[in-house]
């Protein structure tokens, strides 16, 4: 089992640093739609990507345990060439409408469920807020505990509780014991349990020795997506401990109580789960940029670039969960998952607001065996602008701290601070800027850059549960489009509350939400117009020229 | 580990100026960050557990000298303990913080002291034992006498504080400064040859990506 986690994917090079695999290039040349070949779509970087190249969602999710649950994109190449021209879409739509009765029903159900208030706002906000470890745990015998939409449990292979999203781990030790029994029982037969579907619940198991992660969900997400979220939790734990340390501990002592080491970090995991329910970044496996005039962004990036130090690998400036700029060491690529973990770390702790933090952190997708040291600080007291300097040298605090000072000095000298302040005042753009009346919301991801853009969620998705419902719809479209046995390129769905469209090509993914009054023809026109708009705005919405030191 | 002169002086100034590295150590949730926050910002808020460590500076203009504190506020979580020595290395002063309403944290502070005694000679570092959270006096588990007695036998400074109600927080740091300056005077006859000596964190910096210490 230990070897499973070790196993590198084809695009990971053996030295632990990650560079895009060769597959990328074949894909570029093979692309059937020259106009939208990967690397030329709106939002594609002009000088290569700054992230590890994740061709698709499957790259992020495909289990490292080697089982062929998800077929690699290569295997699907044999299937009919992609039809992504606009004329083809309309043809596809009519075909789809006959194929998709199941989906329509599912969506209907989803919407009804929403009406019945099944999608209640997550009630766990009170928990663990009483900071200094006196966490108020829920009573696991209460009905309210059972009503949570998604439970997440982490246990060791000895059946010891490691983490529970709701309720105290102790109170759940027998439940976790049962989970481990299930896992072991099937394993004895040289088999592996993936999920149980019953009574509207999905129980999803992800095994990453020495840990077992289990979700009990009654969301509309696919099993694959829930497993994807569990993997994030696993990576989150690795980022605190490293894979090496985690394994070492359990090799020494099989029934070790890992909560001792994770004490004080439950909140980071809680926050990650909440974030995944609200932020499409995780679903898209991509990073959203703060909308910023290209000239300002370039000035910020060059300032970051100039404030370098020998031990620095990544300099990242972010605002909220949006990327402002990222400068990396040449030939070193960050994986979107690692960046998401960094985003989560920062948003889950207020302690970075004061002073300068210096913390060991493992970026599991980059190298799961060791720690980087991250210098984390906010640029100004009342401004949501956080600087993250990732260094390889734990002794380098003062050097790195000086990089921050130099960065700020250069920002001042270039006089872009004012523009940056302005941009931070409106961190999201309105969909009205696109100028399509029926368009309510969209998510557009450029595959080659690993970046996506999305406007602010506006009316009628005002309330929290409505926002979650919209994300739920996107999740559903996404899971349909990336279904491992029958992936779909185009989906159009006419619903009572909104019309939805998904369009997935080699180069990009687009998910659109329209008012329910529009027509299919209108929706297709709108997609055309929307793509033009994104192209026009791409230097503001994306980072087109990523910098290296 | 050989400790350098406790500080550096700037000969130009009318008053000497010193830089001291102060580190806060102790169990989780005893209020290390709150003490630092109270001292540096004179404010209190419910803080979340520190990740890794936080770094603050504070400059004190005293009659006899200018003192710059470099305060390293460490995380009390066990997983960071393997890197903690990084933070207290070359420290001039340490605050061993415990929660007066939690006996266990007091025992832990004693362990921290043992750890420090292994790394430092007694005259290399000023150690203060700090019983925090006097605002929770009703739930007290460690008596003032217990803390005092222990501090006396070990030759530590001792004080009980409350970061929440701002009780004696400033005093702790002042007591440390006074003690540091007193020690400075003791060796005053020997002038520092190098002017300002800073802590060189890179001294033993082998460039490695991981810490397999």
Automatic annotation (TrEMBL), chain A:
State the Gene Ontology BP annotations: protein secretion; protein targeting to vacuole; vesicle-mediated transport
UniProt-annotated stretches for the region Disordered = 1-90, 114-135
Gene Ontology CC, one term: Mon1-Ccz1 complex
User: Which GO MF terms does the UniProt record name?
Assistant: guanyl-nucleotide exchange factor activity
One Pfam family linked to the record: Fuz_longin_2
Q: Where is the FUZ/MON1/HPS1 third Longin domain?
A: 438-538
Q: Which residues does the UniProt record annotate as the domain FUZ/MON1/HPS1 second Longin?
A: 310-408
Occurrences of domain FUZ/MON1/HPS1 first Longin (ranges): 150-272
Q: What does this protein do?
A: Plays an important role in membrane trafficking through the secretory apparatus.
Family classification: Belongs to the MON1/SAND family.
Q: What is this protein called?
A: Vacuolar fusion protein MON1 homolog
Organism source for this protein? Answer: Serinus canaria (Island canary)
Q: Which gene encodes it?
A: MON1A
TrEMBL record, chain B:
- One annotated GO biological process: melanosome transport
Give the top-rank taxon of the lineage listed in the UniProt record for this protein: Eukaryota
Any one Gene Ontology MF annotation carried by this entry is: GTP binding
Example GO CC term: the record gives: postsynapse
Q: How does it sit in the membrane?
A: Lipid-anchor
The EC number of this protein is 3.6.5.2
Concerning InterPro entries, the annotation shows: P-loop_NTPase (IPR027417), Small_GTP-bd (IPR005225), Small_GTPase (IPR001806)
Gene3D superfamilies referenced in this protein's UniProt entry, alphabetically = P-loop containing nucleotide triphosphate hydrolases
Pfam families, from UniProt?
A: Ras
What does the record give as cofactor?
A: Mg(2+)
Leader sequence range is none
Keywords, A to Z, come to: Cell projection, Endosome, GTP-binding, Hydrolase, Lipoprotein, Magnesium, Membrane, Metal-binding, Nucleotide-binding, Phosphoprotein, Prenylation, Protein transport, Transport
> Subcellular location, in the record's words?
Cell projection, Dendrite; Melanosome; Recycling endosome membrane
Note down the stretches annotated as region Disordered. 184-213
The record's annotation in CDD domains points to: Rab5_related
Q: Please classify the protein's predominant subcellular localization into one broad category.
A: other
Which reactions fall under this protein's catalytic activity? GTP + H2O = GDP + phosphate + H(+)
PANTHER family the record matches: PTHR47978
Q: Which family does it belong to?
A: Belongs to the small GTPase superfamily. Rab family.
What is the name attached to this protein's record? Answer: Ras-related protein Rab-17
What is the species listed in this Swiss-Prot or TrEMBL entry? Serinus canaria
Q: Which gene encodes it?
A: RAB17
């Amino acid at each position: 089992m230990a070897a499973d986690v070790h196993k590198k994917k084809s695009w990971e090079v053996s030295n632990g640093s990650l560079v895009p695999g060769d597959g990328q290039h074949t894909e570029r040349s093979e692309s059937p739609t020259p106009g939208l070949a990967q690397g030329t779509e709106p939002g594609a970087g002009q000088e290569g990507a700054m992230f590890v190249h994740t061709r698709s969602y499957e790259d992020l999710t495909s289990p490292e345990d080697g089982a062929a649950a998800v077929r690699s994109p290569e295997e699907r190449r044999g299937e009919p060439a992609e039809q992504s021209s606009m004329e083809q879409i309309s043809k596809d739509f009519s075909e789809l409408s006959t194929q998709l009765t199941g989906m329509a029903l599912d969506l209907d159900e989803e919407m009804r469920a929403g009406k019945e208030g099944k999608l209640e706002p997550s009630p766990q906000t009170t928990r663990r807020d009483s900071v200094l470890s006196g966490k108020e745990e829920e009573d696991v015998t209460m009905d309210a505990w059972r009503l949570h939409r998604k439970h997440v449990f982490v246990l060791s292979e000895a059946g010891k509780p490691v983490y529970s999203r709701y309720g105290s781990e102790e109170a759940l030790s027998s439940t976790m014991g049962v989970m481990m029994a299930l896992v072991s029982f099937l394993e004895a037969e040289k088999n592996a349990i993936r999920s149980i579907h019953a009574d509207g619940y999905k129980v999803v198991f992800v095994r990453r020795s020495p840990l077992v992660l289990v979700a009990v969900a009654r969301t509309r997400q696919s099993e694959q997506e829930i497993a994807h979220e569990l993997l994030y939790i696993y990576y989150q734990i690795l980022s605190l401990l490293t894979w090496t340390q985690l394994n070492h501990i359990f090799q020494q002592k099989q029934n070790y109580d890992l909560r001792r080491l994770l004490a004080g970090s439950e909140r980071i995991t809680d926050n990650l789960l909440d974030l995944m329910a609200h932020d499409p970044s995780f679903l898209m496996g991509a990073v959203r940029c703060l909308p910023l005039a290209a000239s300002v962004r370039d000035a910020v990036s060059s300032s970051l670039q100039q404030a370098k130090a020998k031990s620095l690998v990544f300099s990242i400036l972010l605002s909220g969960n949006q990327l402002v700029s990222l400068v990396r060491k040449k030939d070193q690529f960050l994986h979107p998952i690692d960046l998401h973990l960094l985003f989560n770390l920062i948003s889950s702790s207020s302690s970075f607001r004061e002073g300068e933090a210096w913390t060991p952190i493992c970026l599991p997708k980059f190298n799961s065996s060791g720690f980087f040291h991250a210098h984390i600080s906010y640029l100004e007291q009342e401004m949501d602008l956080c600087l993250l300097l990732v260094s390889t040298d734990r002794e380098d605090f003062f050097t790195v701290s000086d990089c921050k000072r130099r960065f700020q000095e250069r920002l001042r000298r270039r006089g872009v601070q004012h523009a940056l302040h302005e941009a931070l005042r409106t961190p999201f753009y309105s969909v009205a800027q696109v100028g399509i009346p029926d368009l309510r919301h969209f998510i557009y991801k450029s595959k080659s850059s690993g970046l996506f853009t999305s406007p602010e969620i506006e009316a009628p998705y005002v309330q929290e549960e409505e926002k979650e419902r919209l994300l739920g719809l996107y999740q559903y479209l996404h899971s349909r489009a990336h279904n491992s046995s029958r992936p779909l390129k185009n989906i159009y769905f006419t619903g009572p509350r909104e019309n939805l469209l998904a369009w997935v090509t080699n180069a990009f993914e687009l998910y659109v939400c329209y008012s329910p009054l529009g027509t299919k023809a209108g929706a297709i026109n709108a997609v055309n117009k929307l793509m033009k708009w994104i192209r026009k705005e791409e230097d503001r919405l994306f980072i087109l020229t990523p910098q290296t030191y | 580990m050989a400790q350098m002169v406790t500080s550096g002086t700037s000969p130009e100034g009318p008053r000497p100026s010193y830089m001291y590295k102060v580190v806060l150590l102790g169990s989780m949730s005893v209020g290390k960050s709150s003490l630092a926050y109270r001292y540096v910002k004179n404010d209190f808020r419910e803080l979340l557990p520190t990740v890794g460590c936080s770094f603050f500076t504070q400059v004190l203009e005293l009659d006899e000298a200018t003192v710059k504190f470099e305060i390293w506020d460490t995380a009390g979580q066990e997983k960071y303990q393997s890197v903690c020595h990084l933070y207290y290395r070359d420290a001039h002063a340490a605050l061993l913080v415990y929660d007066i309403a939690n006996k266990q944290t007091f025992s832990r502070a004693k362990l921290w002291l043992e750890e420090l005694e292994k790394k430092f000679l007694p005259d290399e570092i000023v150690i203060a034992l700090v019983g925090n959270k006097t605002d929770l006096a009703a739930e007290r588990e460690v008596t003032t006498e217990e803390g005092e007695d222990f501090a006396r036998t070990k030759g530590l400074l001792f004080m009980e504080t409350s970061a929440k109600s701002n009780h004696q927080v400033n005093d702790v740091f002042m007591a440390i400064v006074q003690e540091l300056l007193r020690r400075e005077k003791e060796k005053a006859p020997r002038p520092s040859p190098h002017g300002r000596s800073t802590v060189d964190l890179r001294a033993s910096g082998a460039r490695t990506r991981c810490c397999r210490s």
